[in-house]
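Homework help thread (please don't just give me the answer)

Our assignment gives two proteins as sequence + C-alpha cell strings and asks us to describe the second one. The first is just a warm-up. Here they are:
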Amino acid sequence: MGTDEDWREQRRLAIEAHDRAQRDRKAREAEQAAALIARFVADAEARGIAPEALTAPAHRGNVRYRTGLRGWYLDRRRSVAVGTDGLFYLLTTSNSVRSRLSGVRPEPGPAPLVVGEGGRDGDSIPLRDLLRRRLDGS
C-alpha cells in the first residue's frame, strides 16, 4: 500500500473509532438520564405531585395543542416534560390547523443529561437540577 492509501485507511479507522465512542457515550448518558427520570416519577408520585394533561406549544404564536399525554412539565415555557410513562418529551410543535383540531402526538426521545445544551447562554441546565426544581415546586 502506498502512503496515500495508508493514510486513508488510518483516517477511516479513526473516524469509525470516534463514531463508536460517541455512540457509546450517548448510550451511557441516555441510561443515566432514564434512571434520573424513573426516580423523578417515583418521587413525584410518592409526594403526591399530580400529573396533568400535557399540551404542546407551537413554534410561533401563543397556541397550545392537546397531546393526549399526562405528566409533569419541567420548564416555565411548558415545552419540556416527563410523561407518566417515564419518558422524556420535547413538546414544541409546528403551527397547523389540523393539529388545532386533532391535537398532536409528540414522540418521546432520549433525555439529555443537560437540557438545552448548545442553546443560548443561560438556557442550559443539568437534568438532575431541573427534576429537583420540579419536585421542590420551583
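The one we have to describe:
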Amino acid sequence: MKTIHTLLLLLLATSITLAQDAEATAAGTYNEGLAELKAKNYQVAFDKLMMAMELANPDDENDAKVLRLAKGNGAIAAYYSGNALLKEEKFDEAKARFEKGIELNPKAYTCYYGIAKSYDDQDMIAEAVPAYLKAAEVAESANKADRAERYISRAGSIIGTSYAAENYEQAIAGGEAFLAAKEDKDVSYYMAKALIASGKPSDALAHAEKAAELGGAEDEGKFLLGHAEALEAVGNKSAAAAAYLKVPAGKYHDHAQYKAGQME
C-alpha cells in the first residue's frame, strides 16, 4: 500500500498544460498532492488529492487515470494524516479519516489498522479486538502475512493486559469478540481467568477446557493449571486434583502438586 504511483501524462497533453495556466485541473492538482505526499506533508497531500478527484471528469481518459491514482494515493495520505490526528488524540477525526481511506481503497489494510488503534488508544477493547481482526483479514488478502500476524497478536495481547490490570469486564468483552472470530489458547485462558475473578466460574470452565485442549502442556503447563483452577472454582475437587497432577515439571509443577494435595 505504501508504494506511491507517479502519474505519467505522456507529455502530449499540451491542452492540459495550457488549461493549467488558466485554472486548476485534476492532473495538476494531483501532481501537487503527489509532491506533498512525497514530502510527507500528509494533510496537505490528502486535501490536494481529494480536490483532484473532485476536479476529475471520469469520461476523460487522462482524468480517469488521475481518478484511479488519486484514490490509491489518497488512501495512503488518509492513513498517515489519520495517524497524525491519533497522536493529537482527535479520535473521531482520525477514525473518519481512516474510513475515508477505506472508501478510496477497500484493500487499504493500514487504514483498517488505524481504526483498530483508534479504539485501542481509547481503551475500547470490545471494539478494538474485532477491528484488529478485520485489519488482519484485509492484510492477509493483500499477502501481508506478517502484518496480519501482528494485528492478531495485538488483539490477543490487549485481552491479557486487561486481565492483568484487573479490568475483567474489558478482558471478557474483548475475549468474546476475539473468540467469535477464531480460536486461541491464550485468549481462552485469559477469558477463563477473568470470568473466575468476576465470580463466574461456571462460564469459565468451557474456556479453560478449550485452552487446555489447544495449549496442553505448553508454557510449562500454564493451560493445564488454568483448567485445574477452573475445576476447583466450580467445586469439582476430585477432577481438579487429577487435573493438577497433569501439570508437568517446570514453573507451575510444585504449586500444582501442592494444590492437588489440598484437593485430596
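TA reply:
I won't write it for you, but here's a hint about the kind of observation we're looking for: Confidence is low (pLDDT under 50) at residues 6-22.
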